[in-house]
From TrEMBL:
<feature type="transmembrane region" description="Helical">
    <location>
        <begin position="12"/>
        <end position="31"/>
    </location>
</feature>
<feature type="transmembrane region" description="Helical">
    <location>
        <begin position="267"/>
        <end position="285"/>
    </location>
</feature>
<protein>
    <submittedName>
        <fullName>MFS transporter</fullName>
    </submittedName>
</protein>
<feature type="transmembrane region" description="Helical">
    <location>
        <begin position="158"/>
        <end position="175"/>
    </location>
</feature>
<feature type="transmembrane region" description="Helical">
    <location>
        <begin position="95"/>
        <end position="113"/>
    </location>
</feature>
<dbReference type="Pfam" id="PF12832">
    <property type="entry name" value="MFS_1_like"/>
</dbReference>
<feature type="transmembrane region" description="Helical">
    <location>
        <begin position="70"/>
        <end position="89"/>
    </location>
</feature>
<dbReference type="InterPro" id="IPR026032">
    <property type="entry name" value="HcaT-like"/>
</dbReference>
<feature type="domain" description="Major facilitator superfamily associated">
    <location>
        <begin position="5"/>
        <end position="358"/>
    </location>
</feature>
<keyword id="KW-0812">Transmembrane</keyword>
<feature type="transmembrane region" description="Helical">
    <location>
        <begin position="43"/>
        <end position="63"/>
    </location>
</feature>
<feature type="transmembrane region" description="Helical">
    <location>
        <begin position="332"/>
        <end position="352"/>
    </location>
</feature>
<keyword id="KW-0472">Membrane</keyword>
<feature type="transmembrane region" description="Helical">
    <location>
        <begin position="205"/>
        <end position="223"/>
    </location>
</feature>
<feature type="transmembrane region" description="Helical">
    <location>
        <begin position="134"/>
        <end position="152"/>
    </location>
</feature>
<feature type="transmembrane region" description="Helical">
    <location>
        <begin position="358"/>
        <end position="377"/>
    </location>
</feature>
<dbReference type="InterPro" id="IPR024989">
    <property type="entry name" value="MFS_assoc_dom"/>
</dbReference>
């Protein structure tokens, strides 16, 4: 079968739904489920806690015992069931429980698909990971633009139904014929059972991990309140998806040029630039509450997210033994992309209730320490 087409289609399907969930889900809870911003931030934070547990423990455990195809089917079906549970949920408690249940299945689809792509590349069944993955980025952008048009024509209720349709397509694809290697059960490797604590004895690992945790946590207000904030400052509904996707386009451009443009930069320099760009981004959004400035600040996503992520990947390639990489990825996903973001989502929600701009300014409490630590790392990284 055409493995490139299979991988590209699955990436497109997942990231189309991700392009709905990440920017719009908190807004859907607020406008369609009549949840306050504070309650919505708590609901999403608890979901992120569940996501961290799932990606750090459940996903590696199941991946070590079942084939990638079985894990993909299970996560897809679990996602569909949990999304359907949102329909009867109207109270804070029910929405909280459904969201926790949902986060155990849905976010792990991302590492599941990345793992599938890695296996196909390693076995020379997929020539270019990037060419397949780019369809995910295209889908993310398309989802934001399409959804904005539907919201303008109807209401925020449409967010849920388009998301549900996307998940149904994802489940359908999960049960289609896949490359045979993805149906093979994993072979146990004793080297994979080494302790997580051993990682912290690796060269400057704790310092680099702390920097990226702080930088990724600073996106909490943007991910959860960016859509609501754009409405508050008067952005036309049909343009909100376009504005949100400026960040994604900046990210795509960065990743496509990073290997050439930043080849001579040290990891410490990349992290310092990421921290500076991130601090500047949130200060601009706070200081100038306008659609034009917010749109311009979106370009800095190439620093705040993409450059930080790229720097951490370079650290992994340079210093982490191959058999430890899956565990480090799980730790990074749990701490940087889930748990720290959960804490800052609560913090941002509290600040947003006081004044919307404070939710973004508050993120510098993580980016400025990250900048200082990155400058410190620049000095010691080669020692």
């Amino acid at each position: 079968m055409n493995t490139h087409r299979w991988m590209s289609t699955n990436f497109f399907s997942f990231f189309f739904t991700w392009g709905i969930f990440l920017p719009f889900w908190t807004g859907w809870l607020v406008y369609s489920k009549n949840v306050s911003i504070t309650d919505a931030s708590l609901i999403m934070s608890m979901g992120l806690v569940a996501r961290g547990l799932s990606t750090l423990f459940a996903f590696p455990y199941l991946s070590g015992r079942f084939s990638n195809k079985v894990v993909l089917k299970g996560a897809a079906v679990g996602t569909l069931v949990s999304v359907l549970c949102y329909i009867p949920s109207q109270t804070f408690t029910s929405l909280l429980l459904v969201t926790i249940f949902f986060h155990f299945f849905y976010p792990p689809l991302m590492p599941i698909l990345d793992t599938a792509a890695s296996r196909l590349v390693q076995n020379k069944q997929l020539e270019h990971y990037g060419k397949a993955r780019q369809w995910g980025s295209i889908a993310f952008v398309a989802a934001g633009i399409i959804l904005s048009l539907f919201i303008t024509a109807y209401s925020e209720d449409v967010i849920y139904y388009i998301f549900l349709l996307g998940i149904a397509v994802l489940v359908f694809l999960a049960f289609q014929k896949a490359p045979l290697i993805l149906s093979e059960k994993p072979v146990k490797n004793p080297a994979m059972t080494s302790s997580l604590m051993k990682m912290f004895h690796m060269k400057h690992f704790w310092l680099v991990l702390l920097i990226v945790v702080l930088l990724q946590a600073s996106h909490a207000s943007y991910y959860n309140y960016g859509y609501i904030y754009l409405q508050d400052i008067g952005a036309p509904a049909y343009l909100i998806g376009v504005i949100i996707n400026i960040a994604v386009m900046a990210e795509i451009i960065f990743f496509s040029t990073a290997d050439r443009g930043f080849k001579r930069f040290s990891i410490g320099s990349l992290l310092a630039l990421a921290a500076f760009g991130s601090s500047l981004r949130w200060i601009l959004v706070f200081a100038f509450p306008s659609v034009v400035v917010f749109s311009f600040a979106q370009i800095l996503h190439a620093c705040s997210f993409a450059m930080a992520h790229y720097a951490f990947m370079q650290y992994l390639i340079r210093y982490i033994p191959q058999h430890q990489i899956p565990k480090v990825q799980g730790l990074y996903s749990a701490l940087a992309l889930s748990w720290s973001t959960a804490v800052f989502t609560l913090f941002g929600g509290y600040l947003y209730e006081i004044k919307p701009g404070y939710a973004f300014l508050g993120m510098v409490v993580s980016t400025i320490p990250a900048l200082l630590l990155a400058l410190r790392y620049r000095i010691v990284e080669d020692k």
